[in-house]
Structure formats: structure tokens, C-alpha cells
Amino acid sequence: MDFSLSDDQRALQESARSFARRELPKVAQHCEATNTPVPHDMLQAYAEMGFLGINTPESFGGLGLTHLDALIVLEEFAKISSAVAFPVFEASVGPVRIVQKHGPQALADRVVRASVEGRVLVAISMSEPDAGTALTDLRTRAVVEGDTVTLNGTKRWCSGAGHSGAYVVFCRMSDAPGARGIGAVFVEKDTPGFTFGEPETLMGFRGIPSADMHFDDVRLPADNVLVPAGGFGDLMGAFNLERCGNATMSLGLAAGALDQALDYTGERQAFGKPLVDFQAVQMKLADMQLRCEAARLLIHRAVAGVDGFPSVMDASLAKCFANEMVREVAGHGVQVMGGYGYHSAYGMEQRFRDAWGWGIAGGAIDIQKINIAATLVGRRFDQRR
Predict the structure, then answer these.
(1) Model confidence over 62-87: pLDDT tens digits?
(2) Which of 91, 121, 335, 374 could form an SS bridge with 164, CB 3.0 to 4.6 Å?
(3) How many independent structural domains does the chain possess?
């Protein structure tokens, strides 16, 4: 069992790291200060470097590498900020993979190629005002009549809402109760009847737009059905890859916090010597490294050698641990930097705020623990009883 990266993977990692450190800090500062996404010209630079198609098959215009390769790149971008990493996240492990796997061939070819080329960002829309953790309570409904689908309802907490050019929308597609009635459709931003609420201001995730989405008799071609009613299991199976991406965003934030803490404690002096010479600081730095490395191993194990999608157990273990550890690691980062860690000009407090978001997005931490327990005992738990 070899835990080391291959020569090709190390070269890819170094390419991503060099690009991210050279090109993205100022972009990240702009995204944070203005709460706006990565500018289009930088998105084109991502595409030209191949960063939006790492694990996309060559037949769709991608590099045809593995999920692990994509997560190696994602971690390097996330070390800079969540906002600048988000396009890579969506293109590599997000809803584009659902379109690729389940969409009709013509739709998949058009959308996946556009994603790889940086011409469109695709977001996933799952939650609703009354359906978040209890996702099977969703009410947004798609009715198929002949060659037309009519979509009505409201969605909430969609990262990318209002900015992304297209959306994979989870919806109720039959009268069957619970998960059996749920499927998904593909909706493009400029479709008549599709509108957005006011942009939201969150604790973190600045530069990752979020807003309510409203569907008022939105008419779509039948070929925009990605997964019909009864395919909820397929959708959530694909979502396990997104959970590994979520875990990697957490890891990137934590690893970036560790890098920043190392630089600061090596340069900052107190009582005539560098902070790193104090044992209390050494303990925190060691703890930060330990947790980052453990999270990285869980994430890499979850996707290593996986052609399709990771298992629910491996994805939940990776996400749960990474979501918890990033909060602690970012907290240590704030503490060792003292007032500078708490100051918005130095970036550590931004990492701390973003850290809390990833443990809410993509299935809360406690839900991952329920998934883990359910897999351990071999049955699902009915939370309604």
C-alpha cells in the first residue's frame, strides 16, 4: 500500500500550487472585499491551464485524469480561499459530474465541454425553505407532459445562485412519497420563468454567491430530465464525490491556515525570540499538521482508484472529519497570530469564518455521522419516528 503521490501527481500539484500562489491572492482579496465571484478572465485562465477539466474524460474535452488528481489541484486552490477554489470544485466534483453521468448524450456533451472551457459554471440546487437536512421533504415539482417539463417551486441555499449559468435542480417528479418521487432536471439561467431573490450575505463564503431561486411555470425540453422519479439513490451516489470535494475545501483552508501560522510564528518575536520557540505554540502547530494529514489520508483513500463515485462510508468519514478539523485548525491559526489573526486584513479570520460553512454545506456534520452509523449496522435510520 503506497500513500505517496506519483511523479505525475507531484508535477500536477506543483503546477497548481505555483499558479495559485502567483495568480490568486489578489483575486481572493477582491472576491472577499466585494463579495463577487472569480472574474471571467481568470476563469478563462483556469480553463487554459486545464484546471476545469482534470477528471473530465478526454471525450468531453478534459484531461482524463482521476478524481484524486482533481482533488490534489482543488486543495492547492483552496489554500488561497474558498472563493477562488469554487469554480474548480464545481467543475471537478460538483453537478457537472451528474450531467456527465446521467444527462442525455447531446446535453452532456454540450454542458461538460462548456464547463471545461470555462464558458459555463454549473451549480447544484437541492435545499428548499422547508427541506434541507430532510431533503425528501422538497416540494419543487417537475411535471412531464409529452416532450415538455414544467417546473414550479422555490429553492434556497444554492451556492452559485444568480451567477452560475446552469443548475442541476432536485425536484419531485411523481406522487410517490419520499425519495421515490424525487429526480433532477437541468435548468439554464436565462430560461423564462426562472428568477432569483436578493443576493445573501453570509458569515463566510464571500465570493460564492447564494440566493433564493424561483421557478414559475418554467418550461424545459424533456431531454433536460437528468434523473427521473425514483433515481434519488443515483443522485446521492454522485453526491458522494461532491462530499469529498467539500472535505478537500476544508482541508485546503486548514492547510493554508497551517502555512500562514508557520510563517507568522517563525517571523514574529516575543520576549526576544520567535514565537515558534515557545512550546505552547509548537503544540498547536503539531496539532494542526496532525489533523491536516489525517484528513488528507481519509480523502485520498475515499477516491483513490475510484472510476465512478466513492462509497457513502468513505465520503462521509472524509467529510465529517475534515469539517470538524478545519474549525479547530483555523481556530488555532487565529490564536497563534493573536490580534493579527483576528484582524480582517491578514486573512486568518476569513479562513475561520469559511471553515464553519463547509460543515453545514453538502450535508451537515451530524448527518455524516448518521450515514456512518447506518453503514456500520447495515440499515437506514428513519428520523421521522
Answers:
(1) 999 999 999 999 999 999 999 999 99
(2) 121
(3) 3
